[in-house]
Design brief:
single chain, alpha+beta, seven-stranded mixed sheet, elongated
Length: about 650
C-alpha cells in the first residue's frame, strides 16, 4: 500500500473527525444559547429587562462600604444534598381526613365524614392557657353542632358517628374576640395619631432558612411573591447575633437581649418578658387585633432560655395549642389528625385574617419544626405556602397590608454550614417585603428606597424601624448613618458598615476588599477568562459576531470573606454572647471585580470572576457581567433575534 494512499486516508479521517467535532460543538453551543435565552427570559420576569445581568452582582455594590458576596444558588454539594428529596407527608394511617375543621371562626364537620359515617354528634372540650406560658387548662366537654361559633381558639373534638366510629383530635381556630374588635373600632375613630399608615402587618416565617435555601426549596412561593405580588427580597440583609432569639428580639422590640432587663432562666433578678417593648403593644394601642404563633413549645424563642410571658401577650396566642399537642402526635411534622403541623399554623393565620377582615390586624406566625434541624423538608411546604399567599391576594386581604416572608438565620446545624458558603448563608436569611399598590402610589419615593436598599447592608433593627413606620410614618428621604435602626422607606447610606449597623465582626458577612494592580498575572488571567466567557456566549453565532479580545484592563478589586466569619465556630454559651473564634477554616474562593475594554468596538465592561483556590481556576457567571458604555448599533445583527447577546456582540458587518 503506497504511503500517499495512507496519507490520503488519514487526511479524510481527520477531516471527518474535525467536521464531526465542529458539528457537535455547534449543536452544544446552540443548546447553550437556547438555555441561556430561556434563563435570561426567566430572570427578566423577576427583575425586568434592564436588571437581567445585575442579579446578585457584586458590581452593583462596588461603591458601597459593605459588599456582600454573590452566593451561588446551586453548587455540587447543594445539588447532592437536595437530590434526596423527601417523600410527601402522610399524616394519616387510615387514609381519612379530619372529621372536624374550623373556618371563619366556626366549628364544622366535613361533608366527606358525614357521607362516609352518617350523622355525627360532637362534644367540644376547650383548651385554655394557664397562668403563665408553661401551663394549660382543659374545660368540661359540652355539646357543639356543625356551624356553631368557636367558644375558644383551641379545643379537643370528641365525636361519635351513626356507624359507631369515633373521632378524637385537637384543633386550632379563631374564636372572635368581641372585646378586641370593639377596642379596635373605637381606637380607629378616636386615635390622635394621624401619621399612622393604617396598614395590616402579616409576617410568615420558617426557622433556619437562608435567602438562597428559600429560593431552592420554595421556588413556587418565591416566584409568586416576587413576580405576581411584586415583593422584594433583601440581598444585603445580615443577622446581628446567634440564634432565633437574637433575630426576633430586634425585629419585635428594636433591642438586643442584653439591652433589655434580665429575663434568663436561673439568673438573679430575672423576670418575665412581659415588659419588653413589643411592637404589638404599640399596635394594640392603635386598635389592632394581634396574633402570634410559634411551634416547638419546649424550645420557644422566649421560653427556652428566657422566662416567657406571665400574661398572654397578644389577642390570639398559639403556644397553648402547641403545648397541648406536644406529646400527642402521630409522627414527625404531623399532628394526631391528617394535617401537618406547619399547615395547621398557616390555616390558623388564614382564619385570623378572615375573622377580622374589617379590622386592622397584626399577625406573626413562625414555624420551627420543619426546618430547624434540616433544610431537607422545607420543599414540602411550597404548595401550601403558595396557596395561602394566592388566597390572601385573591381575597383582597393584601390590599392594605405590609406583608413579610422571612427567616431568622440560615442553617446552623447541617453539614452545609461547615462550608464557606454555608457560613455566609447562615448570616443572610430570607427577608421578603411586599407593599400594597395603594402605598406605592401614594409614596413612590419610599418604595424606590426599599428597592435601592435590596443591595444595602440591612438588619433586623431596620425591619423593626420599618414596622414602626406603620404606627408613625416619617416619610422617605435618606437615612442618618448614625441610626442603628433605619426604616427601609428611607435610603440606607452606601457608607454604612457593620459597626454602624450594630453587627459584631464575626457576624459581619461584608467582604473585605483591596485594590489590585492591573498587571498582576492573576488579574490578567481573570480578565482573559471574562473575555472568554463573552466569546462563549456568542460562539454559536460567530458568523455574525466578532470574537472579542482583551484590549485593556482599567481596574481590579479583590474581595475576600471576612476572617472573623471563617474563624467563628460557635458560641461558648447558650445565650450566644461569647463567640468561639478558634476555627482555622480558610476561604474557598476569592472574587475579583474587573473593569476592562474589549476590541473591536471598545466595549467597557465590569464583571466578577470567582477564583477557586482549591483547583486554581476561574469561574465567570453571566449574571455578574455588565457593559457600562453604550453599544449603539454595534449588535444590530442580533438585536431582535437574540437580544440577550446585545452587550457582547460586535457584528461582523457594521452599519454604515
Amino acid at each position: 500500500m503506497s504511503s500517499s494512499f495512507v496519507r490520503t486516508v488519514q487526511q479524510i479521517a481527520t477531516l471527518r473527525y474535525r467536521r464531526r467535532n465542529v458539528i457537535l460543538g455547534l449543536f452544544a453551543s446552540l443548546l447553550f444559547v437556547l438555555y441561556y435565552t430561556l434563563l435570561t427570559h426567566r430572570q427578566s420576569e423577576f427583575l425586568g429587562e434592564d436588571s437581567v445581568v445585575e442579579l446578585n452582582s457584586i458590581r452593583i455594590q462596588a461603591n458601597q462600604k459593605c459588599v456582600h458576596p454573590s452566593l451561588s444558588l446551586w453548587t455540587p454539594e447543594i445539588l447532592a444534598d437536595l437530590s434526596d428529596k423527601p417523600s410527601p407527608l402522610q399524616c394519616t394511617t387510615i387514609g381519612e381526613r379530619n372529621w372536624v375543621y374550623t373556618a371563619n371562626g366556626g366549628f364544622h364537620i366535613s361533608k366527606k365524614a358525614l357521607t362516609s359515617h352518617g350523622s355525627i354528634a360532637c362534644e367540644y372540650r376547650a383548651i385554655l392557657r394557664g397562668n403563665d406560658d408553661f401551663k394549660i387548662q382543659y374545660g368540661t366537654p359540652r355539646k357543639i353542632d356543625d356551624g356553631d361559633r368557636l367558644p375558644t381558639d383551641f379545643f379537643e373534638a370528641i365525636c361519635t358517628a351513626a356507624d359507631g366510629k369515633t373521632y378524637r383530635n385537637t384543633h386550632a381556630g379563631i374564636s372572635f374576640d368581641e372585646t378586641a374588635a370593639v377596642q379596635g373600632r373605637n381606637s380607629r375613630i378616636t386615635s390622635e395619631d394621624r401619621m399612622a399608615l393604617d396598614l395590616d402587618i402579616f409576617i410568615l416565617g420558617f426557622d433556619s432558612v437562608s435567602r438562597m435555601a428559600w429560593q431552592r426549596s420554595l421556588p413556587r412561593s418565591h416566584s409568586y411573591f416576587t413576580e405576581k405580588l411584586g415583593g422584594v427580597v433583601l440581598e444585603g440583609y445580615n443577622i446581628v447575633g446567634d440564634g432565633t432569639t437574637q433575630a426576633l428580639l430586634p425585629l419585635l422590640t428594636g433591642k438586643t437581649e442584653s439591652e433589655l432587663h434580665e429575663s434568663r432562666r436561673g439568673f438573679p433578678g430575672a423576670s418575665s418578658v412581659d415588659d419588653f417593648p413589643w411592637i404589638w403593644r404599640n399596635l394594640k394601642d392603635l386598635g389592632y387585633v394581634t396574633q402570634f404563633g410559634e411551634d416547638q413549645p419546649l424550645y420557644g424563642t422566649f421560653t427556652y432560655r428566657l422566662l416567657g410571658f406571665q400574661n398572654q401577650p397578644v389577642d390570639h396566642y398559639m403556644r397553648t395549642f402547641h403545648f397541648a399537642v406536644k406529646d400527642d402526635r402521630r409522627s414527625p411534622f404531623c399532628l394526631k389528625g391528617s394535617n401537618p403541623e406547619y399547615l395547621e399554623m398557616l390555616n390558623w393565620h388564614r382564619e385570623f385574617v378572615d375573622v377580622y377582615k374589617n379590622q386592622r390586624k397584626f399577625s406573626f406566625v413562625f414555624n420551627c419544626e420543619l426546618t430547624h434541624d434540616s433544610g431537607k423538608y422545607l420543599s414540602l411546604a411550597d404548595d401550601d405556602l403558595f396557596d395561602l399567599m394566592k388566597y390572601l391576594n385573591d381575597s383582597g386581604n393584601l390590599d392594605r397590608t405590609l406583608f413579610m416572608t422571612m427567616s431568622d438565620h440560615g442553617a446552623r446545624f447541617t453539614g452545609r454550614r461547615e462550608t464557606s458558603q454555608g457560613r455566609l448563608e447562615e448570616r443572610n436569611p430570607y427577608i421578603g417585603i411586599r407593599l400594597p399598590p395603594g402605598f406605592i402610589r401614594n409614596h413612590p419615593d419610599a418604595f424606590d428606597n426599599l428597592k435601592t436598599n435590596v443591595h444595602r447592608l440591612t438588619t433586623p433593627f431596620d425591619l423593626h424601624s420599618t414596622l414602626m413606620e406603620v404606627i408613625h410614618f416619617s416619610g422617605a428621604g435618606k437615612a442618618d448613618l448614625g441610626e442603628r435602626g433605619i426604616s427601609l422607606f428611607k435610603e440606607v447610606p452606601k457608607e454604612r458598615s457593620c459597626f454602624d449597623a450594630g453587627i459584631e465582626p464575626h457576624w459581619c458577612a461584608c467582604l473585605s476588599w483591596t485594590p489590585q494592580t492591573v498587571d498582576d498575572p492573576l488579574i490578567i488571567r481573570a480578565a482573559q477568562n471574562i473575555v472568554q466567557a463573552f466569546n462563549n456566549l456568542t460562539f454559536a453565532v460567530r458568523e455574525k459576531c466578532e470574537k472579542l479580545t482583551l484590549m485593556e484592563i482599567r481596574s481590579a478589586v479583590k474581595y475576600t470573606t471576612n476572617e472573623d466569619v471563617l474563624k467563628f465556630r460557635r458560641s461558648f454559651d447558650i445565650h450566644g454572647r461569647e463567640p468561639d473564634l478558634s476555627d482555622r477554616r480558610k476561604a474557598g474562593a476569592d472574587l475579583y471585580l474587573v473593569t476592562l475594554v474589549t476590541a473591536p468596538g471598545n466595549g467597557l465592561f465590569e464583571a466578577t470572576a470567582t477564583y477557586r483556590l482549591k483547583d486554581d481556576a476561574f469561574v465567570v457567571d453571566s449574571k455578574s457581567i455588565g457593559r457600562i458604555n453604550k453599544y449603539g448599533s454595534q449588535p444590530h445583527c442580533v438585536m431582535d433575534r437574540l437580544p440577550h447577546l446585545r452587550q457582547f456582540c460586535y457584528c461582523v458587518e457594521q452599519l454604515p
